[in-house]
Amino acid sequence: MTSKKKIAADLQSALSGQSPLSIDLYVEVLADYEDELKASLDKDADDALLCMLADDGEVAMMVIDWDGSIYRNENALKKLQAMWRQSFDTNVQTLVPILSDHISQKNLGVAGIKWLPASSD
């Protein structure tokens, strides 16, 4: 079993763009969960859903938007960066430990995303 620390490092590396995302891991594992995760997004009334998986140094990810659009791997990363323009690094630092904990327990790393109203300065 891959350690939580190694999984966190792999996720961090992929999210920072330092290592490529794995299309093989996406096709072999994550693709099978697209419909289930899409239904979960609707049920939970989240604005978007992030799902990541790390296995033997490979990482795959998807983002499902509020309208049901599915973004895979690099497109998911670009979508996440656009969604979190001002807070990408902060959100990544918050989520990586949570996602790596899920993945280390042989689950998908899944996080619902809700939009907060912009603060008026």
TrEMBL record:
Protein name: Uncharacterized protein
Organism taxonomic ancestry: Bacteria, Pseudomonadati, Pseudomonadota, Betaproteobacteria, Burkholderiales
